[in-house]
Specification:
Elements: E1 3-7, H1 17-25, E2 30-36, H2 38-41, H3 48-67, E3 73-76, H4 79-90, E4 94-98, H5 103-118, E5 122-126, H6 148-161, H7 204-216, H8 223-226, H9 239-244, H10 249-258, H11 277-301, H12 324-336, H13 342-354, H14 359-372, H15 377-387, H16 393-404, H17 419-426, H18 431-436, H19 445-448, H20 456-462, H21 477-494
Parallel strand pairs: 1-2, 1-4, 2-3, 4-5
Length: about 500
């Protein structure tokens, strides 16, 4: 029996549910395939950074398959047609793949399943992208959770009862010769993408290097204390690897739990010492893994949130200043890191240059776009998807709707980030700002968070004249805050 394994968001060999099931069921006669889907490569949300990361991960995946005596079959086209062509050419009995949960992915997968089954090819799908999916976690009334805290409690309760079991590499047989149209792995430029960012490396080996470094460097233990400070390398940098599945959430969870010196989740009667850094760090990181699953879960149960407000009461929200040219100017300034608010500008320049942004600054810049510039969150969500190497439809959507106060378990609309105060708190000496906004390199700490407050003589002395070398603030935070509060209150009254 021959089985096709369709790689998608699981670009690894270790702990890959569908791949390992295919290897067992077919006794190694597995055809590993990846389909370059032009519908995605030409989509409005495609990011050159993610294409490059994906291609690097595919190159390593092929190399690792060759070490096992196999290789990656690469095809280009519409997935249902490519998979059917491969199944017929190889005489495959079935296609196995791991499930995805976004509205677009589910529609695509339904088309694939219908076409293959109509041709007599069996299809099996597997849970792999998350530890718990869809209907595995529901409230006592059988409804999906819409608030994170009870979702997290249910998640922890379930994992305590049934911890995930990690699986190793598959055993694979050599591939037969196939009369099928395959392609060589292209470069990003051959696909029409111009990469002008300094990007993280893709691949399973790099994912494990990052996870190992995160543990051995002590960053995991200190995560709860350091994760909010963008100048510190206090995060794992694993988000693009979880996005493309070069590492599994089960592997991340297992490695985090392995650092703990007590049972996890801890029994109610257990009370670790308040000074236990491992408790504070690893638990906080596991909570971030749960947030990832929560946003996937929300988009699965509430697909309207993919393009609309989760909370439909805010559909009546009046976005913008009323002047389209002014709004476009403000949006471009935000995109390019020229708002006159250093923490916002530093974060946006980091995104533009590296395809990645620190989580704390993601919240700051999102709040600024929505609540200081009065612009629709969907503008920022799309810009992020076009730039982020870890751009995940569910996490990106969930994060933006949280910041915009339109989503599930969202930041209350009346809590508005003050970008200057956020900067003073989380980048106190301006190290992050100075790294990404070199115009401010010589500005004293006293003024680095609000350089427009510098006396003109000091501006000239440090070589940063406001309005010439660095922009003045494009809006007044206090003025903008009062107006957006009025708009939110009107929506609530209408709802």
């Amino acid at each position: 029996m021959r089985i096709i394994h369709w790689f998608r968001r699981d670009l690894r060999l270790e702990d890959n549910a569908a791949l390992l099931a295919a290897a067992r069921d077919a006794e190694g006669e597995v055809l590993p395939v990846f389909v370059l889907d032009d519908a995605l490569l030409r989509g409005k949300d495609v990011a050159p950074a993610r294409v490059q990361f994906m291609l690097e991960s595919l190159a390593e995946l092929d190399a690792r398959l060759r070490q096992l005596g196999s290789r990656l079959i690469l095809m280009r086209g519409e997935p249902s047609e490519a998979l059917l062509q491969l199944a017929r050419a190889a005489g495959a009995d079935a296609v196995y793949f791991n499930r995805d949960y976004t509205p677009l992915a589910r529609a695509r997968d339904q088309r694939v399943q219908q076409k293959l089954q109509a041709a007599g090819v069996r299809v099996r799908t597997f849970k792999d992208l998350v530890i718990f999916e869809g209907d595995e976690l529901l409230s006592a009334s059988g409804q999906p959770y819409t608030v994170f805290t009870p979702f997290k409690k249910a998640w922890l309760h379930r994992i305590a009862a049934a911890p995930p079991q990690l699986q190793g590499k598959p055993k694979l047989a050599p591939l037969p010769q196939l009369a099928v149209n395959t392609v060589a792995l292209p470069t990003a430029s051959a696909l029409g993408f111009n990469i002008d960012q300094s990007l993280p490396r893709g691949g399973e080996t790099e994912a494990w290097r990052l996870l190992t470094h995160f543990k051995q460097s002590g960053a995991m233990r200190a995560y709860a204390l350091q994760r909010d400070f963008p100048a510190i390398e206090g995060t794992s940098r694993l988000s693009p690897h979880l996005r493309f599945g070069t590492i599994s959430p089960r592997q991340c969870y297992a490695e985090a739990v392995a650092t703990l010196s007590y049972p996890f989740p801890a029994p109610r009667s257990f009370s670790p010492a308040a000074s236990d850094a491992k408790k504070e760090g690893a638990d906080a990181w596991i909570s971030e893994l749960i947030w990832r699953e929560f946003y996937i879960y929300i988009l699965y149960h509430f697909p309207h949130a993919d393009r609309a407000n989760f909370n439909r009461a805010f559909d009546a929200m009046a976005w913008g200043s009323g002047d389209p040219e002014l709004d476009e100017m403000r949006f471009r300034a935000w995109c390019e890191g020229r708002t006159g608010y250093p923490i916002v500008d530093a974060a946006m320049r980091q995104l533009n240059q590296t395809g990645w942004m620190h989580n704390r600054t993601r919240m700051i810049v999102a709040s600024f776009l929505v609540k200081d510039l009065w612009l629709d969150w969907r503008l920022g969500e799309r810009y992020f998807m076009q730039k982020l190497v870890d751009g995940d439809p569910a996490s990106n959507n969930g994060g933006w709707q949280w910041a915009a106060s339109t989503g599930t378990d969202a930041q209350p609309y009346f809590r508005i980030f003050n970008p200057t105060l956020q900067s003073e708190r989380f980048d106190p000496d301006g190290a992050f700002i100075r790294r990404w906004v070199p115009e401010l390199a010589r500005v004293p700490n006293e003024y680095v968070h609000a350089p427009h407050r510098m006396p003109p003589s000091l501006q000239r002395e440090v070589g940063c004249v406001i309005g010439k070398d660095y922009p003045a603030p494009i809006v007044d935070h206090n003025v903008q805050k009062e107006e957006i509060l009025r708009r939110f209150k009107r929506c609530q009254g209408a709802g």
